[in-house]
Write a structure and sequence with these properties.
The chain folds into 2 domains: 71 residues, Alpha-Beta Plaits; 254 residues, Phospholipase A1 (Outer membrane phospholipase (ompla), Chain C, Beta Barrel), CATH 2.40.230. It is 17% helix and 48% strand. A 12-stranded antiparallel beta barrel has the order 5-6-7-8-9-10-11-12-13-14-15-16. The chain has a 3-stranded mixed sheet with strand order 1-2-3. A hairpin with a 6-residue loop joins strand 11 and strand 12. The protein is elongated.
Length: 356
């Protein structure tokens, strides 16, 4: 059964990656909407509605009454990323504004140092104090993607004023992932532990702040062959459901901080601790030259009531080779994120490749 679940997760994650192929385009559309709105307000004192779909800019036909209309159109057409401009009536505008189905990149960006964030990744780990292992390969096979998004900001397209109108986006998504860890200390590369995760995140984003509430399930499985070679290990088969809330603040492109907490609403074993917290910071050193990767430094800390709220800290220092690929040196000190070994303290050092 575990193999079937693992295979399904592989397929679903692959499909989700394919559906997210337009993620960069969607992120660019959101940026262009805000930029063009701000430009029209600053240069032309216009508070008109603007929608962007795949680089195509939609504006209501009332903009044609602007005295500097031709100059306005020329300015918008020069914005990097704009493919074309369409002037539409009110009914046509309603058909393109505010709501997306399968829009692409999720609003809540990946937590780059979180060892349990759904992504595609592979890491070599060297354990300095594990009771059973020294060398392991840890994988992540999964994805977070958006199912539905809407813009909650109320606006009147014919209204011209000096107030700034910020977009407030709401989103419902899906997270699915598997986190297998393999033993490199024997020739068979036995499966040590595999955690399976599924969650439904609901996200709100406004003015540099992104808040994600989530309900999720995680179950864990220990490899049979690994247990045969380590008979002193007790099978736990930990599983639980949680609700959690994370808030992320990103005032600019080089700094991000996040924090939150959660509650375990059901667990097996039933005496598993209920409360948890998480927080972290990410710093990006942006390269000044084209082709030079950005340096990304991230720290993530988690604590559980079950392990006396002792923080488990993961540090990641890496190069972002592209917007979707990072190679990083990683250090973890604290309790193991692997479900079967959640009450064991471990320290590891390693190197990993991450695909978002």
């Amino acid at each position: 059964m575990q193999k079937v679940i693992f295979t399904l997760l592989l397929l679903i994650a692959a499909v989700s990656t394919s559906m997210a192929a337009e993620t960069d385009v969607e992120s660019e559309d959101i940026y262009l909407e805000g930029y063009i709105r701000a430009m029209l307000k600053e240069r032309y004192s216009l508070g008109i509605d603007v929608e962007v779909r795949n680089g195509e800019v939609f504006m209501k036909d009332s903009v044609a009454d602007t005295p500097r209309y031709e100059e306005l159109i020329e300015d918008v057409s020069k914005v990097k990323g704009v493919e074309s401009i369409k002037i539409v009536d009110e009914e046509q505008m309603k058909r393109v504004e505010r709501t997306w189905i399968m829009p692409g990149a999720p609003l809540f960006k990946p937590l780059t140092a979180d060892p349990r964030w759904p992504e595609f990744a592979g890491s070599y780990r060297y354990y300095t104090n594990s009771e059973h292992d020294k060398h392991a390969f840890a994988a992540s096979i999964g994805k977070t993607f958006s199912l539905w998004r809407t813009n909650l900001a109320n606006s009147n397209s014919n209204e011209v004023n000096n107030k700034r109108r910020d977009s407030i986006f709401a989103e419902i998504g899906l997270q699915m992932a598997a986190f297998p860890t393999f033993d490199l200390d024997n020739a068979d590369f036995d499966l040590i532990n595999a955690d399976y995760q599924i969650g439904i995140p609901v996200t709100i984003q406004f003015t540099g702040v992104t808040v994600m509430g989530r309900i999720s399930h995680q179950s864990t499985y220990i490899g049979d062959e690994y247990m045969e070679k380590n008979p002193d290990i007790e099978r736990i088969n930990l599983s639980y459901e949680t609700i959690d809330l994370l808030a992320s603040y990103e005032p600019n492109e080089w700094f991000r901080i996040y924090a939150g907490g959660g509650y375990v609403i059901h667990a097996d074993p039933t005496d598993y601790g209920a409360w948890l917290y998480q927080g972290g910071v990410e710093l990006r050193v942006i390269a000044d030259y084209t082709g030079v990767p950005d340096l990304l430094i991230a720290i993530d800390a988690k604590g559980l009531e079950e392990t006396y709220y002792t923080p488990s800290v993961t540090v990641s220092v890496g190069l972002e080779l592209t917007e979707r690929m990072k190679i990083a040196l990683e250090v973890h000190d604290g309790y193991s994120p692997d479900g079967q070994f959640y009450n064991e303290k471990v320290t590891w050092m390693g190197i990993g490749i991450h695909l978002y």
